[in-house]
Amino acid sequence: MTITAVAERHAEGVPGITQDARANVSFARQSILNRDNMLCAFELKLYQAPVAETREAAEVTDSERPKPGPSAAERFIQAVLQQDVRAALANHPGYLPVTRELLFDEAIRSLPAERFMLELPPDIVADDTLIARLVELHGRRYRFVIDNVAQADETFARLLPYADAVKIDMNRIPQAVLPKFASVLKSAGKLLIAQGVESQEVFEQALNLGFDRFQGYYFANPQGAAARKVSAPRHALLNLLQLLGGEPTVAQLEAELKLNPVLVMHLMRLANSSGLAMGRKVTTLREAINATGTNRIARWTQLLLYADGRKVALEDDPLLQLAATRARFMELAVERLPEAGRDETDAAFLTGVFSFVDSVFGGSLEHTLNVLALSKPIRDAILLREGALGKLLTLVEALERGAWSDIESACSTLDGVQVSDIAQMGLVAAAWAGTADRSAEATGLERIED
């Protein structure tokens, strides 16, 4: 029997949807990877809905107006510091776009300097007053990134001495100047971030030029996962998934798992986590299967398909985190669709988790889905973006890009669902993905070896 998303959030200690509507600010997050292709930070993609003052509000007299509350900057900072945003960052630094007005508001000092890199827009007015403010904030240990750089203009030149990092738009900067530009910036000691990295070729170009960080979804594309060989452990996971799809007995599961010692180790630790243990330590494989349940074993196995084989924390694996976040979002969002029933939460999770399984196995996505024997609604959602699940899959892909106009358009077709709802479900899903590993007491687990 499927547990509802709300009940699971409480059971697993995952933050809920707690956004303060007065802030009028929503966020999506986008992965930033290091040179080892591991997560090292997230950019917060900002959405601020327009607020139209009503005629009734405009006609209120001064004596009738309520006392002024927090300033716009204070509400913005409060939104950044809300529990769901903090949890979605999963202990990684956040890259936060800022405006000139925000930089001059004292509310910015509420931001913990060690947790955020402040992104300066390339068209900010870089006069002497701004430079003085950057120097002051830098003295308080705030760090700055020049964002969306495509050329070295006068504004860039003025900001550069006070920036710790430069984010270069790989799709807009002239290719002829890129090598020299990168070399000069590296010589100046700047952290170089490649923005808009959507293919393995662009990643390798930036890597060879000495870039330190990479932002984009190249790692989720088949060509970006060339090193993810379909190893024996992954085939074992696939065999286990096929077995789980047929309502196996405990004896059948036990026999399959015994062929894979690494999987047994994962399962024993999962079963002994605080949320699953039966009041005592689980010591046998049969007890672990009974304590965990086939539904949780299946979900855990589905996500482990994306683990890339290195002995690092699962929360730092970009593909696994993307798959887990997408699957959880689908599960949360399906309950908001009038044409989708609660019984479809499992189908929604499966749609999310297998929507880019070709990045692991390579070859045709359709062929891989056939091997997994997924139902027709799930296959049609992934391959054709059809049905309620297809609509949600398109929506979560827009959220991953921070494509707010696409999300607005999609929300116009969803009864009672606002952009802020979508963004907040995305944060809740990200928080779940980042804490699922720790909730199973799995920090430092051996990874699936390739």
Automatic annotation (TrEMBL):
InterPro entries: dGMP_Pdiesterase_EAL/HD-GYP (IPR014408), EAL_dom (IPR001633), EAL_sf (IPR035919), HDOD (IPR013976), RNase_Y/CdgJ (IPR052340)
Pfam families assigned: EAL, HDOD
Stretches assigned to the HDOD domain: 230-420
Protein's UniProt name: Diguanylate phosphodiesterase
Organism annotation: Paraburkholderia phymatum (strain DSM 17167 / CIP 108236 / LMG 21445 / STM815)
